[in-house]
Structures are given as structure tokens and as C-alpha cells.
# Entry
Amino acid sequence: MSNFGSVNDLSCQIGFMERVRSLLSEIYQNPPKAHIVVYGCQQNVSDAEKIRGMLKTMGYEMTDDIEAADFIIFNTCAVREHAEQRVWGNVGATKNYKRKKENLIVAVCGCMAQEEKTVERFKKSFPYVDIVFGTHVLHRLPEFVYRRLSGSGRIFETSTEFADIVEGLPTERDRDIKAWLPIMYGCNNFCTYCVVPFVRGRERSRKPEFVLEEAKKLIAEGKKEITLLGQNVNSYGKGEEHGVNFAKLLRQINALEGDFRIRFMTSHPKDCTEELLLAMKDCEKVERHLHLPMQSGSDRVLNAMNRRYTKEKYLSLVARAKELMPDIELTSDIIVGFPGETYEEFLETVDVVKQVKFASLFTFIFSPRANTVAAKMEDPVSREEKGKWFTQLLKVQEEIAAEQNENYLGKTYRVLCDDFGSKEGFLSGHTAGCAVIEFEGYKNLIGQFVNVRVDNVSKVLYGTII
Ligand code: SAH
Ligand code: SF4
# Structure
């Protein structure tokens, strides 16, 4: 409890935002500057939009220049070791900034800040880090900033007791055309390699009315693409009385008025139902793209990963999706070198990749993570050997992608123009699948849908507006 009520109430944190605002105006003549560093997945990018919203409400101005900042916050990722290494290095560099700027506040949040051992290391070896707080208490940032600014000692808050969703936090989005819309948080699946259930907690869904209200707001602001986010969107609404599952939610958002598209990720194959595929097919605003992480093509490895589907089930899902939506594009995640995986089992993955012909693949070498079952499994294959398998898979996928690109030639697509292209005078946009096409055009087309005919295919697709 604080003077404003429970620290988990929005009204309480709004109170802290106001108090920080007045404190900052006493300390600084001009508005102080804040810099956010984001690692990892779209969930983290979406959380960073809330962090930015709260910081701005507190009176900070954003800066891209980390050295100019009075407040630096790292929103970290723990999903693979590589991501963590970058965080240690970059947080370490703030030591020098702190020497130059006495008032500088350094904060660390996100998935690494929810791990016990990691937090201990911040405590002991990074004395210049002022605030460390986990994923469950993101909404309490204003309170932490207030406490630190008003002379409290270093703050470490990693409790997981609060498991509700705080609605209504200020959000400052970083893109004009596309928006992330989280529909649920956490994960209950405990895939044996994955740290997410440990650092993001149990699955909890936002109420459909909040999701719909936010979607309406985004459409009114002129967003043209809304990506619904969740570790496994297919579990949306499970155990809730309202009875709105993910397929129903998709239909409700699709029914909203406006010219916009809907995307979603991630969809766990074990929960990808006929009802969902039918909803996708029926909903004209839902893009023809399904990110369906396969992880492995070997039944033994899938079982050891606790994925709860087989290669056959995966392939039949893909076949059904293609049958219902012949133009659908599939993407996937693959882990190479899971503990105990043999070369023959890896080749089964390659075989499925060749059969499905994914539009693109996100490929990772297995990285042991604290607390996970897989981290304790025997792992006899060397990193070097795994690296060779990884390269082999990338090559196979590159060939498939090049072959797939040929299919675009001569066809016309409705493209959402969302950026400048890689060449002067060119713009870039993507199809209702996930192909990116570049074409000549003026910048006022950014944010609009245009019809583009593909007339040149290399690594990039080039087209002409028609
Ligand atoms: N919830 C999403 C993805 C979460 S993590 C899903 O279930 O698909 C994103 C991807 O990182 C995973 O799909 C997996 O391919 C990869 N990944 C997760 N943990 C990993 C680990 N320990 N080592 C290597 N890759 C991992
Ligand atoms: Fe991790 Fe599996 Fe949950 Fe995805 S579904 S976040 S891979 S545990």
C-alpha cells in the first residue's frame, strides 16, 4: 500500500507519475531525457511502448542518444544466452556515463530481471544499476522512479505475486502504420528448452472488451496493421467465463469497421484448431500468414521438447491451412541441436522444411536456460557440429526462398506501403502474406494500400504500382 492505495492500482501509479513530474521540474531546468534499449521479441517491444508512455507522462523526453540520457532503461530478453551477453556488455557501459552524470538513473527490466541469479549479479557486480524490476511489476515503474528520485536506496523488485493485468497504462507507440496489440501474457506450456514460463509467469488473457476497445482506438488513429500478440494466442480466453476464444476474437476484430489488416503471433501447433483456420479463411482482414513454430521434424525430439504434437500432425495442419487458403504463407521457428538430437533427427527437420516450403524461417541453435528441463539433459554434440547443421539448414531454406520468389513474378498484390525502400526513390511494403516488395513511389504513399505488380525477382522482389 502507498498513500494512493495499492501499488498495483492504475490510480496509484498515476499518482506517482504526477509526483515524479513535479520532482523532475524541481531537479531539472529543461525536461530530462530518457533512453530505452529493447532486446528480444515483440512482447518486449510492446512493453517498451508502455514504458515510453509512462516516462513521457512523468515528464521525460525521449532521446536516441544514450549518452544524452538522464534515465536509461534496458528491457531485456532471456530466451537465449546470446541475448543476455549483449545486455551484460551494454549495461556495463553505463558505468562510464554515470561517472560523467551524477544524477543518471539506470534501470533494468524484462525477462532477465525476473531471474533470481541474474538479479543477484546485478546487485553484486553492477552497483551503478539503480532499479531492477521484473515482468510482473512493469506497471510500477512510476513508483520505482519516484522512490529512487526521492532518495531511496537501490530498488530490486522481482515479486511474482501480482498476476493480474493492469489496463489503461499510457502507451506511446513507436510506429504510425502498424501496432502491436497484446491479447494475453505468460505461458503455461513449459516446452523443455524454454525460459518464458519462468520469467513471464502463467497464462492470463485480457478481457475481450479491452482488446476490442484498443483495436478500435488504433483503427481510429489510422493504424493499418494490427498484430495480436501472445506467447500462444491459441490459448486466448482459456478458463474465462466470457467464452470468447481466439477464433471468436479474430472474428470480432475483423468485424470492426475500417481498412486495416490483422496479424497474430504466436500460434502453437498443438492448439491450432480447425475453428481457427476457418476463422482465418472467413476473415478478409486477417493476413494470409501463419507463423507456426515447428521446432523440429523428429517425433522423438518433439516429444523431448514437450511440444505435444507429431511431425504428422504438423504436416496435416499445414496441408489443411493450404487447402482452405491456397495463398497462405507459412513461417516457422526451428531449434537446431536440441540435447541428444542426432544428425539423422536433424535431417528429418530438413526434410519437413523442404516439404512445407516456408516463406521464411527463424533458426536458432539450442541454448541451455536456467531452470529448464533441457538444460539438465545430456548434450554430447559439439557447438561446432551444431553450427554446421545450422548452416546446412540455412542453405536449404535460402534455396527454397529463391524458388518461392519466382512464383511472385508477373502477379499483382495489394501491398501495405510501410517504409522507404533500399534504393533512392523506392518504397517498400508487404503483401497479405509476408513477402516484401519494393517499388518506385512518392513518400505520401507510406501508410496506404497500393496494387503492385512484381516484375523483377532477385533476393528482393521489385514491382510497379498499377
Ligand atoms: N511463444 C513462442 C516463442 C517464444 S521464444 C512460441 O511458442 O513459438 C521464440 C523462439 O525462440 C522459439 O520458438 C524457439 O524456436 C526459440 N527458443 C526458445 N528457447 C530457446 C532455447 N533455449 N534455445 C534456442 N532457441 C530457443
Ligand atoms: Fe516457450 Fe513453448 Fe511457451 Fe512458446 S509455447 S513461450 S516456446 S514454453
The chain is about 35% helix and 20% strand. The pocket of iron/sulfur cluster (ligand 2) is lined by residues 187, 189-191, 194, 196-197, 231-232, 268 (CB under 6 Å). Residues 383-406 form the longest helix (24 residues).
